[in-house]
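Q: I'm building a small set of examples for a reading group on sequence design. Run inverse folding on the following structure and report the sequence directly after it, with nothing in between.
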């Protein structure tokens, strides 16, 4: 599979993604049953994951979106510039951040720091993918879809320079 100038191989098929999402959503629904959680989806990459996840969490909840930038092409810059702000009231809410992938952890750490200023009642993270060997920060991701090796992936919302987000499966870069 070619995305722009790079070759990718099938890595996590859509059936496995959906099976894992069913488990995650069940657990989150149990944990937040009476908490009226506020789900904050981190755009752009998490939009497809969030859409599938949230539709299976059958409890009263609110959903909003936020957008930051940090990644340039295939390298994390570690800098987070907020683009769309938190215009929803986070104060004393049980907040669940929905992320596509935690790589170095710098992005999610900055977002957590920013959000804590608004004093939520609780703050947890659900991420479809994590790369534990790339973590540079001590990040706690409460709900993890799949732990993966430290290689670049695309598909299911994740892009390579804007391309590949619409792929139904997740693909991993072919380094040969
Ligand atoms: P971090 O700050 O944790 O290093 O990077 C987080 C962001 O970088 C993610 O939200 C995602 O947008 C992007 N990212 C990290 N690893 C990958 C990857 O393997 N593939 C893609 N497409 N994006 C990634």
């Amino acid at each position: 599979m070619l995305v722009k100038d790079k070759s990718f191989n099938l890595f996590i098929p859509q059936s496995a993604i959906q099976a894992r999402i069913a488990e995650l959503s069940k657990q989150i629904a149990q944990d937040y049953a009476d908490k009226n959680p506020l789900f904050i989806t981190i755009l752009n990459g998490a939009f497809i994951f969030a859409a599938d996840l949230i539709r299976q969490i059958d409890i009263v909840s609110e959903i909003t979106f936020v957008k930051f930038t940090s990644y340039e092409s295939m390298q994390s810059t570690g800098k987070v510039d907020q683009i769309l702000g938190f215009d929803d009231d986070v104060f004393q809410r049980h907040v669940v951040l929905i992320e596509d992938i935690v790589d170095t952890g710098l992005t999610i750490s900055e977002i957590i720091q920013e959000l804590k200023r608004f004093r939520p009642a609780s703050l947890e993270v659900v991420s479809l993918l994590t790369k534990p060997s790339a973590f540079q920060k001590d990040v706690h991701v409460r709900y993890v879809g799949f732990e993966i090796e430290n290689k670049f992936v695309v598909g299911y919302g994740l892009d390579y320079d804007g391309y590949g987000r619409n792929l139904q499966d997740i693909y991993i870069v072919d380094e040969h």
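The beta strands are 2-3, 6-12, 38-43, 62-72, 75-84, 94-102, 122-130, 143-147, 153-154, 170-173.
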